[in-house]
């Protein structure tokens, strides 16, 4: 049996399906930056809490790196005003992929199982019944889709999110007249999900006593608390259990994103919002940028 890595995978990439449903001067004064006493030393982020927001020093003006989560978090009610102020102070908004252009018909095509395969047959009768009850989807429709697609529907039912955090930020950036840029296309994200989320992952999430439910709740709680160390524990568990899956989900994509991120940082005044699971560890975006000489400091509430 393949190792399970559903929790971090789906919370990293869930914006695709929820977005499809939803679519039918430098620093401001609010928010204090916790800087290192020695600018040449690595800042100590340990123990800091609040939104997962870092200021990145640039040659001309600072930029911001913000960790998101794609389900269970209401941007309009839970994101502090001073984080929105940081977005307002920037010229460019950068995110993973264009959630505003997700086409439901194309998503249905990309998430379809090969001809002759059935999700109902893969799941087994008991788990299949629970899946149908959870999603409310017609059996004939859901049975033709891949496990990752069904899993995203389950998470959306368990953690209703009318507008994913990333999409809410992108919409606000558009209202403010910001330039909007993307790090990868939708098809790559779908490919990653198809290659990493298994039928066992889906069963683990559907079952009320499954480990997937418990870990998902713990991950969301850690995000709400702004506890990067607790979130890192989930991500590192993925690395230990499935190095190849971790490489696909995080390491390879972080490396591909890095040149694009650096170009925006060099210009300055960029607000970058990507899944928070891309932040922890030596291969995470925070340490990759620091290794290239950038100074990143955690921003905390005033």
Written account of the structure:
- With 302 residues, the chain is an alpha/beta fold.
- It has helices spanning 6-13, 15-23, 75-78, 81-89, 104-110, 119-123, 125-135, 139-142, 147-158, 165-175, 186-196, 199-206, 211-225, 228-241, 243-267, 285-291, and strands spanning 32-33, 53-56, 63-68, 92-95, 179-182, 270-275, 296-300.
- A seven-stranded mixed sheet has the order 1-7-2-3-6-4-5, with helices on both faces.
- A hairpin with a 6-residue loop joins strand 2 and strand 3 (63-68).
- The longest helix has 25 residues, at 243-267.
Q: Biggest β-sheet: count, sense, barrel?
A: 7 strands, mixed
Helical content band: 40-55%
- Secondary structural class: alpha/beta
Question: Uncertain regions: pLDDT < 50 for 5+ in a row?
Answer: 1-6, 20-43
Q: In order across it, which strands form the biggest sheet?
A: 1-7-2-3-6-4-5
Percent strand equals 5-15%
What are the secondary-structure elements, in order, as H or E? HHEEEHHEHHHHHHEHHHHHEHE
- Count of folded domains: 1
- Rg, nearest Å: 19 Å
Mean pLDDT: 83
Count of strand segments: 7
Gross geometry:
globular
